[in-house]
Design brief:
The complex is a heterodimer of chains A (116) and B (112).
Chain A lengths: L3 E4 L2 E4 L5 E7 L5 E7 L5 E7 L6 E2 L6 E5 L5 E5 L8 E8 L10 E3 L3 E5 L1
Parallel strand pairs in A: 2-11
Antiparallel strand pairs in A: 1-3, 3-8, 4-5, 4-9, 5-6, 7-8, 9-10, 9-11
Chain B lengths: L8 E5 L4 E6 L8 E7 L6 E6 L4 E2 L4 E4 L5 E6 L8 E11 L2 E6 L3 E6 L1
Parallel strand pairs in B: 1-10
Antiparallel strand pairs in B: 2-7, 3-4, 3-8, 5-6, 6-7, 8-9, 8-10
Classes of the chains: A mainly beta (116), B mainly beta (112).
Chain lengths: 116, 112
């Protein structure tokens, strides 16, 4: 099992360019998440998908869109990149039974994005 | 406002116990307390979680206050490999799934 995989690992964009970050999991998890991590800020939720076919905004959704392509894949798109979106982006997945006792998250290795 | 608050940093001597505190005064009855840690240049990894009772696993112990407004992650014997940022998280049921609210983390330094 690869767990959670993310591509690319590194990316440099110019202001105004667009790109899509890809995430896939092979654990048959229901929920998938996108976070960003900035120095001293911990992880902040951008969007999540509780189950296939649903997506919801998190704490910092502005400037991003997501697609839950199927149960395995959850992509994050930056339509017009801005320097404020320079960050490390993490994808995560979880089995997700609301309030269930065992649900934990599994994280990918991250994508380091720089917007010039 | 952050759902959890933690000290920014802590130090420990190698092979000594470490107690990492966390406050979560607005916790609800259905919210689980999770701890994750993040090694440099890696994604966070699960450490332990609990609801009301203290929990033990091979990595650590979790002590939860009776009123559930605070908790403590206990590493029984710190090793150099335990140097990481430790995050205290509330897992909140939302719809058919759960959201995980991260604090800003405690950076643990282990001194040889």
């Amino acid at each position: 099992n690869a767990g959670v995989t993310q591509t690319p690992k590194f990316q440099v964009l110019k202001t105004g360019q667009s790109m899509t970050l890809q995430c896939a999991q092979d654990m048959n998890h229901n929920s998938m998440y996108w976070y960003r991590q900035d120095p001293g800020m911990g992880l902040r939720l951008i969007y999540y998908s509780a189950s296939e076919g649903t997506t919801d905004k998190g704490e910092v959704p502005n400037g991003y869109n997501v697609s839950r392509l199927n149960k395995r894949e959850f992509s994050l798109r930056l339509e017009s990149a801005a320097p404020s979106q320079t960050s490390v982006y993490f994808c995560a997945s979880s089995e997700a039974v609301a309030g269930g006792p065992t649900d934990t998250q599994y994280f990918g290795p991250g994508t380091r994005l720089t917007v010039l | 406002d952050a759902k959890t608050t933690q000290p920014n940093s802590m130090e420990s001597n190698e092979e000594e116990p470490v107690h990492l505190p966390c406050n979560h005064s607005t916790i609800s009855g259905t919210d689980y307390i999770h701890w994750y840690r993040q090694l440099p240049s890696q994604g966070p990894e699960y450490v332990i979680h609990g609801l009301t009772s203290n929990v033990n696993n091979r990595m650590a112990s979790l002590a939860i206050a009776e009123d559930r407004k605070s908790s403590t992650l206990i590493l029984h014997r710190a090793t150099l490999r335990d140097a990481a940022v430790y995050y205290c998280i509330l897992r909140v049921p939302v719809g058919t799934g759960n959201q995980f609210y991260f604090g800003t983390g405690t950076s643990l330094t282990v001194i040889p």
